[in-house]
Amino acid sequence: MCFEILILFGLSVFAYLLGSIPCGLILTKRFTSIDIRQKGSKNIGAANVRRVAGTRLGAFTLACDLLKGALPVCIVIYALAGTDKLIGEIYLSIIALSAFLGHLYPVYTRFKEGGKGVATAAGCFIIISPIACLVAMSTFILFIFLSRRVSAGSLSGAAVLPVAVWLTSHSIPLTACALITTIFIFSRHTDNIKRLLSGTEPVI
């Protein structure tokens, strides 16, 4: 048990540090003269990178942010194979939240200027609960199509995620992880929600 706790602690730190890597900022600085923190919505996430620096860099940013969530979750599944089911789900939740919070509050930028967490959360849950994640992603795509606004899709997908996780897994730890993730995503979209309500949110 002590060995498992040590592994969990090490993986949590790794997940947080990996999640903290500001991929959008690094890519735009490397391939353009743009400081993404000063353009568009001033967010380092894939949506703003696509809007400001183009589809290719937006797609690379999206892929990197997804990987930041998926990789540590895959590692913990392998490292703690054979662990009791409930304990394993708790460990998975801790690692997923570590990567997710790293993206929101990156240590490399002094816990500021993080992204909104949607892609990193998707990377985590596509491994943890693939069917639930696909339901959330389908909702995301549907609401983008209906509203032509990425933020509406992100919020809708996030809202569906905890329900989908519960219905597909009946796991209290994983559902709690999804609910915490949703709460943080909504809190990071406060300005978007205000613009959606006022009808001023930019369309695609």
Structure description:
The chain has 204 residues and is an all-alpha fold. The chain has one domain (2-198). The chain contains ten helices and no strands. It has helices at 2-20, 23-31, 46-53, 55-79, 85-104, 118-128, 130-147, 150-169, 172-188, 190-198. Helix 1 (2-20) packs antiparallel against helix 4 (55-79). The longest helix is centred in the N-terminal third of the chain and has 25 residues, at 55-79. The radius of gyration is 17 Å and the shape is globular. The relative contact order is 0.12. The mean pLDDT is 92.
Question: What layout of secondary structure does this protein have?
Answer:
Blueprint: H1 2-20, H2 23-31, H3 46-53, H4 55-79, H5 85-104, H6 118-128, H7 130-147, H8 150-169, H9 172-188, H10 190-198
Helix pairs in contact: 1-4, 1-5, 2-4, 3-4, 4-5, 4-6, 5-6, 5-9, 6-7, 6-9, 7-8, 8-9
Helix and strand pattern:
HHHHHHHHHH
Overall helicity: over 70%
Q: How many runs of DSSP E, i.e. beta strands?
A: 0
Query: Low-confidence segments, ≥5 residues, pLDDT <50?
Result: none
The number of helical segments is 10
Largest sheet: none
Distance between the termini: 50 Å
The Rg value, from CA coordinates, equals 17 Å
How many distinct folded domains?
Answer: 1
Task: Describe the structure concisely for a colleague.
The chain has 204 residues and is mainly alpha-helical.
